[in-house]
Amino acid sequence: MNEQVIANMYAAMRSELNQFYSKITELEMEVSEHNLVIEAIQPLDPSRRCYRMIGAVLVERTVREVLPAVHRNKDGLKRVRKAEDESKEGGGRKEGSGQGVLVGPAM
Fold this sequence. Notes:
Layout: H1 3-41, E1 49-54, E2 57-62, H2 63-86, E3 101-103
Antiparallel strand pairs: 1-2, 1-3
């Protein structure tokens, strides 16, 4: 191998490593956002209305229905992050699901 081939391989590996770090940071931010949502809606009345973004659709649910789903999503993001850490050599990428929650006014 000549120096140029080695330099190209190094640059490609460095670029891939930067992509992993970016994805890990993104997943950590999503887990943090899920924690904020959980902390905000957990003390609320379970029958209170809240709105959850599923894909591009805003769906009306209750806190009782949404809280377990937010916990599942958070746990899934943690598993995705672990899989990312373990598959650095494999190059596999998984995407977290972006979903938001909006709590409606108390009635």
